[in-house]
């Protein structure tokens, strides 16, 4: 039985093609939020979304007919708008991306809202079935679920289609909506098998909880975070002055140690090694407390190592002042690298990455929000990584399924890295 009000949705944005329908070149997509796309990639509003696909679904999320709409055709846009307006449940993968780009187009903004549609996201079911599964994308989930596979060279990570009228693009777009339903159906089956048919993971309350969460992050990303660019610029100047003052004082001290510039790396290593040798000669054993560089096995000029030396050296030791200056310099540089530079210009070591920039025209930052935890890539190596993973699993086993009395839950946000309680 087909329910035309339950559909799977996927879009392809300007990054999918080299040219638009008029064969004019399209920019490479470097950001994945519509307001940032318009500002950073300088794409025209009409080219934000090139194609959209929907697949009709049975009530238990089995795929049926698929339709692909070419967004440069007015009649296709009208038909898509009617389908969306009529729908009450939308299934997809990372739906906040698709919904935001469609809502950025004026004729679709009021056809998509939390009052109209319940959102069912494959990423949520993937998380509910296995919180530690490394496969997070539709393309990587297909093979491990034994449902479908994509030719690696035909995915958008490896190629761009020549233009929106290319039949391969329509086929690619339609595959995504069809395969998303296959994956949702299979993961729901596995959840019922592994956790019981009456598990709360499949309850209406849980589905509504995550749908509301997705709508919340869509609205949060659209609204943006107001920030004072002039204030950020003033703050960055102050940080730069503090950093330079610490560097200059240390470079011209009784025992010179430059914190930046040519030769600073070697000087820092020698400084740490000399402190280690001095303390070792006094019978102080620090081998198990110090972190070594991975390649050469030298004593790293890390904050952790500097704190170790500061804790064992006498207060009157000349190196104490140098370590204090190093702390001031490192703290200022860290704030510039992780905060002011990405918000004002780009990621410090990646000049082309402007995903965090505060838009000059509006004074708003538009971060990317997620309703399920990110991967474990940022965790430390070794025992501390294992401990962190175990701690996360213990906590998430208790909290990943909301209860009727639960008010707060955690949403992770990337660039800036914050956590929000709703």
- Just name the CATH architecture of the largest domain: 2-Layer Sandwich
What is the residue-mean pLDDT, rounded to a whole number? 85
Order of helices and strands: EHEEHEHEHHHHEHHHHEEHEE
- Stretches where pLDDT is under 50 for at least 5 consecutive residues are 376-422
Which geometry do the CA atoms define? elongated
Main sheet characteristics: 5 strands, mixed
Any key phrases for this structure?
Nucleotidyltransferase, domain 5; alpha+beta; 422 residues; Taq DNA Polymerase, Chain T, domain 4; three-stranded antiparallel sheet; elongated; 2 domains; five-stranded mixed sheet
Textual characterization of the structure:
- Helices cover 45% and strands 12% of the residues.
- With 422 residues, it is of the alpha+beta class.
- A hairpin with a 3-residue loop joins strand 9 (410-414) and strand 10 (418-421).
- Helix 3 (95-103) crosses helix 7 and helix 10 packs antiparallel against helix 11.
